[in-house]
């Protein structure tokens, strides 16, 4: 499924361009049959109907005219309130068959205003055609003559329809996603087994694993600017500056806009990173579901890291003084995050000593609840 982001909201695909085309072709031939001996004038309501109107008249085989109007409101006197006016109507419609082309009709309020303006123009007949119709919320006594596709009360964009100006150019229709992501901070000191466990859990729970350490190492290997910057800090076992790390993390999340959620591994590592992450997720209508922490005694960790250093090729795993520095960074800057999440009732400690399978089992018990 394709997911897209417009402003701060996510939308998932809903109605394909092919389905839209079939609906429009059917509408056009129906209207054609009923307008056999006349030249109707179609009036598209801007902005939303521009795509529908174009495809509709392309599918309409008889002679016809097309024009567009826009409903504008201006402030009247205090007794008249807001006054609605149609902008752009130059044709003389007297005695004509007029068919209004709407992209979508929901409550019908706008349509009613438009209808009332046209009603007073001595038309032969006035009909309404809409590509999308929301019967559940339609509140007016008006008769809708032609409906392309009826939909439940969902917020949709694409094919002329917008969310704050964006999305009109999409060929398909998308709907707003209300589904919340599962976002887990997998926490613990260096060597606690976060990476190993994340690899298993990401598949089990269909989440995207983002390890900031891995992203840095990838950049170092590829000698990117980011890699060159991070290397000096990482080689010593120091933390990379917050601003750099936060921007990188956001870019990784953006790359995976359609994920069900994330396992953050090695992030956040400072209070400022945690705050930035909360703020960033909040802007998307998302949040951290929980911090799941692997608790392992330090002595065991040093032994594990030195062992890993024999094969990992990581310079920061091979030297005990660098390892100690990483612990020091953890103790002074990172471990306080336990309180940060505990204060939000989001801290879940898990015993990180045992076999990989045993620990996965313990973590799963917590993941299942989040
Ligand atoms: P890791 O693979 O998680 O052990 O990370 C290895 C190194 O990458 C750390 O010692 C830091 O130098 C750097 N790093 C990874 N994540 C972060 C982060 N969130 N903030 C700052 N530096 C980080």
From TrEMBL:
Record GO biological process: AMP salvage
Binding site for ATP: 191-196, 308, 354
UniProt: AMP binding residues: 212, 217, 238-240, 266-269, 273, 314, 326
EC number: 2.7.4.3
GO function term, MF aspect, one: ATP binding
Domain of life: Bacteria
Compartments where located: Cytoplasm
Pathway participation: Purine metabolism; AMP biosynthesis via salvage pathway; AMP from ADP: step 1/1
InterPro entries named among the record's database cross-references: Adenylat/UMP-CMP_kin, Adenylat_kinase_CS, P-loop_NTPase, PRTase-like, PRTase_dom
Broad EC category: transferase
SUPFAM superfamilies: P-loop containing nucleoside triphosphate hydrolases, PRTase-like
Catalysed transformations (reactions): AMP + ATP = 2 ADP
Start and end residues of each stretch annotated as NMP: 211-240
Subunit structure: Monomer.
HAMAP family: Adenylate_kinase_Adk
Written domain comment of the UniProt record: Consists of three domains, a large central CORE domain and two small peripheral domains, NMPbind and LID, which undergo movements during catalysis. The LID domain closes over the site of phosphoryl transfer upon ATP binding. Assembling and dissambling the active center during each catalytic cycle provides an effective means to prevent ATP hydrolysis.
Its biological purpose: Catalyzes the reversible transfer of the terminal phosphate group between ATP and AMP. Plays an important role in cellular energy homeostasis and in adenine nucleotide metabolism.
Identification of the protein by name: Adenylate kinase
Organism for this UniProt entry: Aureibaculum marinum
Upper taxonomic lineage: Bacteria, Pseudomonadati, Bacteroidota, Flavobacteriia, Flavobacteriales
């Amino acid at each position: 499924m394709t997911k897209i982001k417009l402003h701060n909201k996510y939308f998932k695909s809903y109605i394909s361009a092919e389905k839209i085309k079939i609906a429009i072709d059917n509408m056009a031939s129906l209207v054609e049959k009923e307008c056999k001996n006349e030249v109707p004038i179609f009036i598209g309501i801007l902005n939303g109907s521009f795509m529908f109107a174009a495809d509709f008249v392309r599918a309409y085989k008889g002679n016809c005219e097309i024009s567009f109007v826009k409903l504008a409101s201006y402030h009247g006197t205090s007794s008249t309130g807001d006054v609605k006016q149609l902008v752009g109507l130059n044709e003389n419609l007297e005695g004509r068959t007029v068919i209004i082309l709407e992209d979508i009709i929901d409550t019908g309020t706008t349509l009613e205003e438009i209808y009332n303006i046209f009603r007073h123009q001595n038309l032969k007949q006035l009909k309404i055609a809409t590509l999308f119709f929301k019967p559940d919320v339609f509140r007016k006594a008006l008769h809708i003559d032609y409906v392309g596709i009826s939909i439940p009360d969902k917020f949709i964009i694409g094919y002329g329809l917008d969310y704050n100006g964006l999305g009109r150019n999409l060929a398909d229709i998308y709907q707003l996603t209300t589904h919340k992501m599962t976002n887990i901070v997998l926490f613990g000191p260096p060597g606690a087994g976060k990476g190993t466990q994340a690899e298993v859990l990401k598949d089990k729970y269909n989440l995207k694993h983002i390890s900031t350490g891995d992203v840095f190492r990838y950049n170092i290997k590829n000698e990117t600017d980011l890699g060159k910057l991070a290397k000096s800090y990482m080689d010593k076992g120091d933390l990379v500056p917050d601003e750099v790390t936060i921007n990188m993390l956001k870019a990784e999340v953006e790359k995976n806009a359609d994920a069900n959620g994330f396992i953050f591994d090695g992030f956040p590592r400072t209070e400022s990173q945690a705050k930035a992450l909360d703020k960033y997720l909040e802007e998307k209508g998302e949040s951290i579901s929980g911090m799941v922490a692997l608790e392992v005694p330090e002595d065991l960790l040093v032994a594990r890291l030195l062992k890993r250093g024999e094969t990992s090729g990581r310079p920061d795993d091979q030297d005990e003084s660098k390892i100690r520095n990483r612990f020091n960074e953890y103790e002074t800057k990172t471990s306080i995050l336990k309180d940060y999440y505990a204060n939000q009732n989001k801290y879940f400690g898990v015993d990180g000593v045992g076999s990989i399978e045993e620990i996965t089992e313990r973590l799963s018990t917590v993941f299942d609840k989040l």
